[in-house]
Design goal:
The chain is mainly alpha-helical. The chain contains four helices and two strands; from the N terminus they run αααββα. Helix 1 packs parallel to helix 3 and helix 1 packs antiparallel against helix 4.
Length: about 130
């Protein structure tokens, strides 16, 4: 990776963990009234979980599973449940609905897909 930029594998591990974390948040919001969601410590996970030491094929498979799980969780919601809220504390405290959480999930997947593609392009360029 470039200095200060995660590798494609690190971004892939991050998206996997984002999907799993957001799925947990969804269920917490359905059970608790306006819970305060715990931070996922995204920057710490890269090092603590040793993303770059993980097997790329396994991470890709885990990402696919995590994507299916979060999709199933949102697909099972009733319309009124999308309005249930939680409190996000990063970067500043703000109330968010499950509808927003769903939109945020899609956003995370889309923009990190571009990060992954850029990382892979850098690897391909240096391999030539």
């Amino acid at each position: 990776p470039a200095a200060g930029v995660w590798s494609a594998l690190e971004y892939t591990g991050h998206v996997r963990d984002v999907f799993l974390t957001l799925r947990d948040r969804l269920y917490t919001v359905l059970v608790e009234d306006k819970p305060v969601v715990a931070p996922m410590y995204r920057d710490h996970r890269v090092t603590l979980a040793r993303y770059n030491a993980q097997d790329p094929a396994e991470v890709a498979e885990q990402l696919a599973t995590a994507a299916r799980l979060i999709a199933q969780a949102f697909d099972a919601l009733e319309q009124a449940q999308f309005q249930r809220c939680c409190l996000y504390t990063f970067p500043t405290p703000v109330e968010r609905s499950l509808l927003w959480v769903g939109q945020h999930t899609v956003h995370e997947g889309e923009h990190h897909l571009r990060d992954i593609e850029a990382g892979l392009a850098r690897v391909r360029a240096t391999a030539r």
